């Protein structure tokens, strides 16, 4: 089968080349399904993995790719809930950049009729991650206020919509006025340009000094102190990435006096059972919103699989709003 392969130079950190190559097609084991991938998306972690900085968890495919959308083409032994020809999407721990991928049957999600493969691929990773971290990890409630960095990112565009649907008030940060405007259209209440404004001071102004209940963060170290500062008593900070730095120093007092929670969360390395439980809850709570069009995957751009270098470059340059999707053609 065709897959996008990383041609490693051997030096960690190098922008290894990506090439479409012939590789062995995987076979579904018991309880697994073989999916013919029609569309898959670029996730920020792919840029790290191609540089040797984010290896796949043990047992996962070494091929890049954390999500996909396609057709069921073969069933492993004992699979009863899917049929050949079903349209499905899923997150995977690796292998989404291959034309075929094997996926445990309880990780698959049916694609609602109103969504194309491109849209389903744009939804898979980011809607699951937003749902997991906003609601299951942070316990975001109706009437609470959320600070969401990078509202125009893949995860951000999903999180704004899910938080809005839950009745939470969303403040986003973004690098440009245009991205802020588009986040407001998705349902954010306010936007802060993190390049030109001190986001913590602006959050205090916007909330009359009260602060926020939940922060969804992937910047990490440089924002840690400010986040503890602007969280209300009982507030929750969920860190899902470390784009700005890994090591920070904080004053611990607010953690105690305000009874704050700092939660670290990764989806990719969770066990098969944990992912199955997440998918079960996603299917009952989020899939109906996607199926009714109440929330929509935001597609920034679509490339052919052969154009993967251009797709990665677009994410690296940061001009995108929503998801960058790749598609296979015969
Ligand atoms: N833990 C997990 O399970 C998990 C799963 C999926 C994703 N993630 C993480 O979630 C993050 C988003 O992923 P993605 O695929 O959606 O990436 P993406 O589309 O490339 O988004 C990155 C975003 O970060 C924003 N940003 C960069 N520097 C910033 C700063 N200093 N202050 C505020 N915002 C800043 C950018 O905003 P502008 O474009 O406006 O500059 C951009 O929107 C990544 O760090 C990724 O690794 C974690």
UniProtKB/TrEMBL annotation:
<protein>
    <submittedName>
        <fullName>NAD(P)H-quinone oxidoreductase</fullName>
    </submittedName>
</protein>
<dbReference type="InterPro" id="IPR011032">
    <property type="entry name" value="GroES-like_sf"/>
</dbReference>
<dbReference type="InterPro" id="IPR036291">
    <property type="entry name" value="NAD(P)-bd_dom_sf"/>
</dbReference>
<dbReference type="InterPro" id="IPR013149">
    <property type="entry name" value="ADH-like_C"/>
</dbReference>
<dbReference type="GO" id="GO:0070402">
    <property type="term" value="F:NADPH binding"/>
</dbReference>
<dbReference type="GO" id="GO:0016651">
    <property type="term" value="F:oxidoreductase activity, acting on NAD(P)H"/>
</dbReference>
<dbReference type="InterPro" id="IPR013154">
    <property type="entry name" value="ADH-like_N"/>
</dbReference>
<dbReference type="Pfam" id="PF00107">
    <property type="entry name" value="ADH_zinc_N"/>
</dbReference>
<dbReference type="Pfam" id="PF08240">
    <property type="entry name" value="ADH_N"/>
</dbReference>
<keyword id="KW-0521">NADP</keyword>
<dbReference type="InterPro" id="IPR020843">
    <property type="entry name" value="ER"/>
</dbReference>
<feature type="domain" description="Enoyl reductase (ER)">
    <location>
        <begin position="13"/>
        <end position="326"/>
    </location>
</feature>
<keyword id="KW-0560">Oxidoreductase</keyword>
<dbReference type="InterPro" id="IPR014189">
    <property type="entry name" value="Quinone_OxRdtase_PIG3"/>
</dbReference>
């Amino acid at each position: 089968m065709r897959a996008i392969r990383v041609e490693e130079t051997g030096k960690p950190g190098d922008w290894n080349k990506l090439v479409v190559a012939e590789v062995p097609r995987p076979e579904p084991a018991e309880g697994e399904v073989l999916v013919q991938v029609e569309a898959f998306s670029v996730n920020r972690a792919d840029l790290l993995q191609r540089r040797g900085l984010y290896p796949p968890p043990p047992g996962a495919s070494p091929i890049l790719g954390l999500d996909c959308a396609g057709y069921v083409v073969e069933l492993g032994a004992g699979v009863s809930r899917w049929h050949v020809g079903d349209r499905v999407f899923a997150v995977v721990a690796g292998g989404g950049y291959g034309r075929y991928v094997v996926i445990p049957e309880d990780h698959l999600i049916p694609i609602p009729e109103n969504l194309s493969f491109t849209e389903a691929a744009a939804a898979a990773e980011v809607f699951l991650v937003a749902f997991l971290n906003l609601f299951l990890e942070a316990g975001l409630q109706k009437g609470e206020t959320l600070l969401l960095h990078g509202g125009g990112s893949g995860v951000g565009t999903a999180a704004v919509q899910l938080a809005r649907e839950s009745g939470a008030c969303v403040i986003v940060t973004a690098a440009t006025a245009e991205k802020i405007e588009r986040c407001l259209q998705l349902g954010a209440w306010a936007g802060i340009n993190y390049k030109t404004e001190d986001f913590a001071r602006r959050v205090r102004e916007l909330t009359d000094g009260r602060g926020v209940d939940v922060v969804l963060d992937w910047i990490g170290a440089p924002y840690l102190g400010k986040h503890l500062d602007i969280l209300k008593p009982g507030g929750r900070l969920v860190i899902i990435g470390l784009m700005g730095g890994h090591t920070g120093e904080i004053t611990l007092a607010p953690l105690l006096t305000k009874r704050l929670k700092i939660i670290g969360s990764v989806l990719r390395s969770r066990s098969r059972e944990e992912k199955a439980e997440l998918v079960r809850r996603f299917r009952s709570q989020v899939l109906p919103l996607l199926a009714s069009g109440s929330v929509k995957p935001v597609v920034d751009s679509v490339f052919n699989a052969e154009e993967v270098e251009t797709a990665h470059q677009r994410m690296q340059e940061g001009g995108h709003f929503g998801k960058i999707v790749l598609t296979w053609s015969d």
